[in-house]
């Protein structure tokens, strides 16, 4: 794991760069110069405040995902499959890439062969189903919070 200062610097540097650069997004360097912004970077949104865009949000999401994936991979490499609890493995039921897909890839890597991906049409069907699920989940966020809480509590 990197030290806390490096990670903090990466995130804050991204956020500050995003906030300072957002007003100039899509503007050519010549136009920035005409506006007098060249070498005069400051927050330019309402009342001189900065605003973050999806760039910072994506950076945080990627950082979190990579951290989880890398830590999981390192733990798995250290412990082997037997060190990963079955209750974490058993629920993996993705189709057409599920546990059998992972086992086949592991065997191919072990044997020095190139693993094959599932049929393109199967993968497309899976992605379309996944898209529908994600869209439906997103639409539920339009339901008022109290009603959502009543409908979706465990």
UniProtKB/TrEMBL annotation:
<feature type="transmembrane region" description="Helical">
    <location>
        <begin position="120"/>
        <end position="140"/>
    </location>
</feature>
<keyword id="KW-1133">Transmembrane helix</keyword>
<dbReference type="GO" id="GO:0016798">
    <property type="term" value="F:hydrolase activity, acting on glycosyl bonds"/>
</dbReference>
<keyword id="KW-0472">Membrane</keyword>
<keyword id="KW-0326">Glycosidase</keyword>
<dbReference type="InterPro" id="IPR005502">
    <property type="entry name" value="Ribosyl_crysJ1"/>
</dbReference>
<dbReference type="InterPro" id="IPR050792">
    <property type="entry name" value="ADP-ribosylglycohydrolase"/>
</dbReference>
<dbReference type="Pfam" id="PF03747">
    <property type="entry name" value="ADP_ribosyl_GH"/>
</dbReference>
<protein>
    <submittedName>
        <fullName>ADP-ribosylglycohydrolase family protein</fullName>
        <ecNumber>3.2.2.-</ecNumber>
    </submittedName>
</protein>
<keyword id="KW-0378">Hydrolase</keyword>
<dbReference type="InterPro" id="IPR036705">
    <property type="entry name" value="Ribosyl_crysJ1_sf"/>
</dbReference>
<keyword id="KW-0812">Transmembrane</keyword>
